[in-house]
Hints:
By secondary structure, the protein is an alpha+beta fold. The protein has 3 domains: 7-84, no CATH class; 119-234, Butyryl-CoA Dehydrogenase, subunit A, domain 2, CATH 2.40.110.10; 242-388, Butyryl-CoA Dehydrogenase, subunit A, domain 3 (Up-down Bundle), CATH 1.20.140.
Amino acid sequence: MxxxxxxxxxxxxxxARALIAEAFSGAETYDGGPAHExxxxxxxxRRGWEVSKWPEAFGGPGWSATxxxxxxxxxxxxxxxxxxxxMGMGMLAPILFAYGxxxxxxxxxxxxxxxxxxxxxxxxxxxxxxxxxxxxxxxRQEGDDYIIDGEKIWTSGAHHADxxxxxxxxxxxxxxxxxxxxxxxxxxSPGIQIHPIISLDGRHGxxxxxxxxxxxxVANRVGREGEGxxxxxxxxxxxxxxxAYVSLSLSLLSRLREAAAEIPGSQGRRLIxxxxxxxxxxxxxxxxxALAMTELRTLSQVEAGEAPxxxxxxxxxxxxxxxxxMTEFFVECAGPYAAPWFPDxxxxxxxxxxxxxxxxxxxxxxxxxxxxxxxxxxxxxxIIAKHVLKL
Length: 391
Ligand SMILES: Cc1cc2nc3c(=O)[nH]c(=O)nc-3n(C[C@H](O)[C@H](O)[C@H](O)COP(=O)(O)OP(=O)(O)OC[C@H]3O[C@@H](n4cnc5c(N)ncnc54)[C@H](O)[C@@H]3O)c2cc1C
């Protein structure tokens, strides 16, 4: 395996760095707000890089796996998202490429590309999380519409979204995976209510979404009626491949090394020189290198036209483990300076300790959610046991 970058890849890296510097030059850092997101999207769109992961047939730039790898590294190091457009861009678009009718592709893809419409994912229900196929939200056809009744939960970002892609029950088969239908629902439709759920870190990211006789046109069904499970599974593998967090962990690791060099450890040593701490950090760094290689291998398969498949569970499981360990190291480094409620203390004039330490408890708590979101660790292990190890 060749590990060094070719001249063409080095030139691509230069181009990526130039674009990043052009969009966010000087001391200004990306804050994730709408103005910065729009500026970043516009900079990407000028080169056609806002759809960097889309196939060329749908207007993507046709990057190689190595180019994706470089782009992830460079954007993460600069504190920028590798792509904008949320769940529409990363999750729904690949489904529309594979299962969408040409009219659906023509109707929905341009808005996703232009980041004009926000999507959320309506899969989970109160009694159907890990056991997703137990979902009970019904859709019954009446003329040209489906009428939807039921409830979705843990719907991230529904309060900012315009549309939801969701799973509904249209029938009962001999297996519960049968009779599920994938629908696209306009969240402004009458009968939809969005109820906020506040999470452990004090933020509003989740929602419960209720449907009371909500109409969605039959034309918004992706795939055939009753065959939504196949569509749903395809989407999950794309979601999980995106959850290896390699670039994030690499950037956390580099920040962590700087932080641990500032903090005193035991016996008058710096924390970074403490043999116990250094050994645990090195182990995580080695596992991260191995994960980066696995991710690259998976990206190469996707590039060659294969779906990521059950291997994406492996990436998600290990990626989550490593990113969580990074957040634990930070809390260990920050000690009493890690303030639990960052939003309240961000600009507190009397704060003590290094600035980097303040959000670490919130990051640690956020990090816990990663082993549940997109399917829990236990479920990923079950998938690996069955489909990768054939147990
Ligand atoms: C940050 C975050 C964002 C999310 N965003 C969305 C979203 O946008 N849209 C959406 O639809 N959902 C979303 N979810 C929901 C997520 O998909 C579910 O929480 C997840 O699938 C687990 O389901 P559950 O919460 O019902 O837990 P349960 O399924 O009730 O699981 C409870 C526990 O039992 C274990 N368990 C269950 N079954 C098995 C089994 N067969 N073998 C071994 N152990 C088992 C689980 O691992 C877990 O530890 C999000 C969740 C999080 C944390």
